[in-house]
What does this fold into?
Amino acid sequence: MLDRDRCERVLRECFPEFQLLGVRYFASGWDYELWEVNGDLLFRLPLRPACAAPLQIEARLLPALADALSTPVPNPLYVSDGCAAFPLPFFGYRKLPGRPLNEVALGERDRASVARQLGRFLTELHRFPPARAAALGVSVYSPEGWREEYRDFQERVRRDVLPLLPAGERAAFEAFWRRFLDDERHFRFQPVLIHRDLDDAHILVDVERVHITGIIDFGDGCVGDPALDFAGCEGEFRRGLLAGYGLPVDDNLGQRADIYRHKISPFHAVLYGLEIGDPTWVRRGVEALREEFAGAG
It folds into this structure.
């Protein structure tokens, strides 16, 4: 991660014409860090070289989405391919108003309203032409390609995650992957452009107006299974989301969303912890897996 002095050096070198008045750390996630600049801009920088290519695709995709969506998304105003001070690409955009949904307390009625708004957002996102997304560099998966992607993921899990689990519990995980990958119902979807990481932290809301003010973090976007965009929520919120969703829903979508949320997500947490060398992420992911698969076979 950067510190403030280095961030200032990077911005001055990459954008010499830019009037830099103030810089402060804003936030970070799994793959990117955000720095607030001059009070109204956010610069999004990759934490690792592997995150650079998705960020470049995101920078191309976002302007196209801005024209297609009624919900605001970041609009890259400053785009850099990197410089000596920071050799990876990054971009800056005008900060969107609102607070992340996971940081606010909403009543049941207000959460239902936000869920329906989110359903309308997903309707528009999932209508975005896949061919246009592909032309912008977004990865495109057919249902069979999606299955192969998860077969490859299973091999990573088998190699890196299963050895961390008690020997007597590994059969349950192997059985899950076998059932998931062999079940044709999981691979009969119509591929659409998906956000792929749509959780409460990436939904900005105006609490007073009970209104979604923006959706952020499209770095994982691809053309794939629409169910993955419903995996960030469950229960009443998901039912509200579906009530606001304007596209056909296959009868297996909910089951797939639950699988992504409860069964597959902890594997991602373990692999992420291993990648960045953080034992806390590894431990939490392993604990979630053992709890989720307890008694399974």
Remarks:
- The chain has a mean pLDDT of 96.
- The first strand starts at residue 23 and ends at 28.
- DSSP finds nine helices and ten strands in the chain.
- Residues 99-292 form a domain with the Aminoglycoside 3'-phosphotransferase; Chain: A, domain 2 fold (CATH 3.90.1200.10).
